[in-house]
Amino acid sequence: MAYVHDGWTLYTLDVKLKGGRNQTIYFFSKRKPKSGSPCDKPNNMTVGINKRTGLPYLKKK
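User: That's the sequence. What structure does it adopt?
Assistant: Structure tokens below.
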């Protein structure tokens, strides 16, 4: 089940960094992005809201 916060859906994407290391990134989107898949909120993270823009973001507990 995908995590949804005020109409924003949480997505995940595995990317390869320049050093050759793989890293998982999380991002919120109201529309279906070109890449990435809907995911649940990780247990070690909480959702914050940017005061200026109102966009949600993940931060570590």
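The first strand starts at residue 4 and ends at 5.
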